[in-house]
Design a protein that fits this description.
3 domains, 3-stranded antiparallel β-sheet, 9 helices, flat, zinc-finger
């Protein structure tokens, strides 16, 4: 089991409020961030209900073993998250029927032996955050951990390491579990074909599909609109793309802004002089350079110099200052410095 309490779900039986002494099946799902997600199912209180082995003689009264109670649907609730049902995975979990199912497995000594004692070699998995936690490599096959928890066999060849079939399996068989766990792990689903079904599933759960939109790598989530955020984004666009300050005076650009946001007015769009002031007040970056040399007595030294741009003038000069000067013992060749 994982040691991260944030990732562990709480199991909520459907029959909450029933007789507390009556035994009932429970389930646990343990999430290992950065590794495989293991699903194990325990039925506490049912040890005396487990049928005796065939080799065991019948009791003196000849009474047959007590059958297991019928399996009832359960809800799995991640800490601080939504509650979703776990029923039967025999049918695909689609946007029309988004609730996934997992039938509990009796806690017999051999339960899940194949999954529990399998040799994990997740280091061979491709480093894909929304895919790697849900599969494990055993020998030359990649196994779905959701199916493994149900004592089913769903595997793919890892000879080519093609991930399209792996994504398709999660999308068609375990959509609900996949989305819920990725949300809990704060992992973005990046599969191209998954965008539509994932958005439909999130809408059916009352969630905002934009929270899992396919944004480019390294792109932050889009913040809510505010005048301050709008100006910051405009300044960042001008600086990062080396645009002229006059670009904000374009009537066509104003039309785009006003069309995209009904709350925005033409007076809210800053002029070039305002943009220039915002850029002047923006935090700058300091660059560093290092230089090493030896004096006439072959004593090595190292100097660290900081470089920045002054923003007090319209055409600011470059600023430079020595911020470090140290004696370096030994030779300053590459091998010694490394």
């Amino acid at each position: 089991k994982g040691h991260s309490t944030d990732a562990e779900p709480t199991v909520v039986p459907d029959d909450v409020g029933a007789d507390p002494e009556a035994p009932g099946p429970t389930e646990t799902i343990t999430v290992h961030p950065g590794g495989a997600l293991n699903a194990q199912f325990f039925i506490p209180g049912l040890e005396h209900h487990i049928p005796a082995p065939a080799s065991q003689p019948p009791t003196s009264h000849g009474t047959p073993p007590t059958p297991l109670p019928p399996v009832t649907p359960h809800n799995v609730q991640f800490s601080g998250g939504k509650t979703f049902n776990i029923r039967d995975l025999s049918e695909p979990s689609t946007p029309a029927t988004p609730m996934p199912v997992l039938w509990p497995v009796a806690a017999t000594p051999k339960s899940n032996r194949r999954c529990q004692h399998a040799k994990h070699t997740t280091a061979e998995m491709p480093n894909i955050p929304d895919l790697c936690p849900f599969y494990e490599v055993r020998e030359d096959q990649v196994h779905c951990i959701f199916c493994c928890a149900q004592k089913k066999s769903t595997s793919f060849s890892c000879s080519t390491m093609s991930t399209s079939n792996w994504w398709h399996h999660l999308l068609t068989k375990h959509l609900g579990l996949w989305v819920e766990v990725c949300d809990r792990l704060k992992v973005k689903i990046t599969a191209d074909k998954a965008e539509g079904p994932v958005a439909t599933y999130q809408e059916s759960k009352g969630q905002d599909p934009k929270q899992n939109s396919s944004l480019p790598s390294g792109f932050d989530r889009v913040p809510g609109f505010s005048l301050e955020a709008f100006i910051d984004a405009l300044v960042a666009f001008i600086v990062s793309n080396d645009q002229s300050f006059n670009v904000v005076e374009s009537p066509e650009l104003h039309q785009i802004f006003l069309m995209l946001c009904e709350e925005l007015t033409d007076d809210d769009i800053p002029h070039r002089t305002q943009i220039w002031k915002y850029v002047q007040d923006a935090l700058g970056k300091i660059s560093f350079t290092c230089d090493m040399w030896s004096n006439a007595n072959l004593v090595p030294f190292m100097a660290v110099t900081a470089h920045w741009i002054e923003t007090k003038e319209v055409h600011p000069p470059n600023g430079t200052d020595l911020i470090g000067f140290h004696h370096v013992p030994g030779h300053h060749d590459g091998e010694h410095l490394a």
